[in-house]
Amino acid sequence: MKFYTLLLFTLFAASxxxxxxxxxxxxxxxxxxxxxxxxxxxxxxxxxxxxQEGFGxxxxxxxxxxxxxxxxxLASISKxxxxxxxxxxxxxxxxxxxxxxxxxxxxxxxxxxxxxxxxLLNHTSGLWDYEEFVPDTAxxxxxxxxxxxxxxxxxxxVYFLAGEEYRYSNTGYALLALIVEKYSEMSFPDYxxxxxxxxxxxxxxxxxxxxxxxxxNRAYGYDKKDGNWTKRDQSSTSAVLGDxxxxxxxxxxLKWDQALYEGTVLSKELIxxxxxxxxxxxxxxxxxxxxxxxxxxxxxxxxxxxxxxxSFRNIFYRIPAKNLSVIILTNRNFPNEFDMVDLAEEVxxxxxxx
Length: 354
Fold this sequence. Notes:
Layout: H1 2-28, E1 39-45, E2 48-55, E3 57-59, E4 64-65, E5 72-73, H2 79-91, H3 101-104, H4 117-121, H5 145-153, H6 170-184, H7 188-197, E6 206-207, E7 222-225, E8 228-231, E9 246-248, H8 250-262, H9 268-274, E10 293-297, E11 300-309, E12 312-319, E13 324-330, H10 339-351
Antiparallel strand pairs: 1-2, 1-13, 3-4, 5-9, 6-9, 7-8, 10-11, 11-12, 12-13
InterPro entries: AmpC-like (IPR050491), Beta-lactam-related (IPR001466), Beta-lactam/transpept-like (IPR012338)
Protein name: Beta-lactamase family protein
Domain Beta-lactamase-related: 26-342
């Protein structure tokens, strides 16, 4: 009888602790709850969700709630899939990371002789930001990846010589998507679907092209001004795919997270390369690998990527040594993109092992 009582007490204590943990996590996301643009939050440990919750609304007009199947625009989290596509083609000897842009693209400016595909992957190309040349009012004429190439062909200089500095570049990733198309002889969305999403059974993930495919269970983006929420889901640059055009949900991203451990669609050796800090020409390391930011946090190596576009703020945060990942997807225009790192680390603190 004493043993039975002790067992009940132990189970009750564990249950109470678990409930407290959930309460603490819900407190973090209290501003996302109710009749507001929401958040899909997932914590993955050893290949399983140890926490998953949807807060708020995916569609304010229809009152559609956020859940684990809600698909958000990933924004720059998309870059890891673009990177994977390039590395797959390199592994098949269809692409060489040392090729220069003047070798890849016809009529490219002379400075392309110094810029290698590798420089695009780790943001050391020095290419101009295409967003500087695209008004944010051109909603009826959204630029796409090939339009980015056209803009860059018109520029006569770069920010710096390739490899001399690190400067985050959406331009580089738009060009990477075009490289995937050229050397795979497939559209970028079709390549990702056949070579990454289908093999991993990521059935709700896609590179969205208006009029060609459809995002089901879609979260729409909202902008808060003067205390009111306004739907503002797209901008003049939202149709560019290589730098941020993928939609997905936490259920599919769980599968992607596990593929990064298992080497399913990319070898473990190549995956490790994506998680290795790049170097400048002077051998100085940068805090970016190939499609991933890299940092040390409280003694652990962390790989993460934020995603910020019109009314979406996201983060995919991984601590491989702990087999722990945090995914936060939101459909609103704040906080600052880099504050999402602090938000993810606040979540990690709540589930940290003793």
